[in-house]
Amino acid sequence: MTASAHFKQQFSKKNLFEIYNEKISTTETVGLDRVHPEALGDVIGEQVLIIEKKVRSGTYHFTPYKEVLLLKGTGSPPRVVSLPSARDRIVLRALFELLIKVFPEAVSQI
């Protein structure tokens, strides 16, 4: 299968719904847009259409990430953790799976 075919498959409506249902909907992480992943379920149909349309046309833009500081202990500087929005997490997961399919030799076998 070509990279283009993998791309079309990963960003199909069906696959984007699967990613949301299996990987995103049950998480608690909230991005800068303050939309809880479970609440996204009310509008997931239109969000998937937006993702599919914008990614395929090359106009998808990620929302700025919410940054949180995690304290590591006395004497250590805090760690900055960046949290994407739920919609961006769907796109990131699809990209992750696409890269694994296109470049399987780059996946570490741990």
Largest sheet: 2 strands, antiparallel
Proportion of helical residues: 40-55%
Count the helices. How many? 4
Strand order of the largest sheet: 1-2
* Residues in β-strands, percent: 5-15%
Provide structural commentary.
The chain has 110 residues and is mainly α. Helix content is 46%, strand content 9%. It contains 4 helices and 2 strands, in the order αααββα. The protein has helices at 3-10, 13-24, 44-57, 86-102, and strands spanning 66-70, 79-83. The protein has a two-stranded antiparallel sheet. α1 packs antiparallel against α4 (86-102), α2 (13-24) crosses α3 and α2 packs across α4. The two termini are 26 Å apart.
Brief description of this entry?
Helix content is 46%, strand content 9%. With 110 residues, the protein is mainly alpha-helical.
Per-chain topology:
Blueprint lengths: L2 H8 L2 H12 L19 H14 L8 E5 L8 E5 L2 H17 L8
Antiparallel strand pairs: 1-2
Helix pairs in contact: 1-4, 2-3, 2-4
List keywords for this structure.
two-stranded antiparallel sheet; single chain; 4 helices; 2 strands; mainly alpha; 110 residues; 9% strand; globular
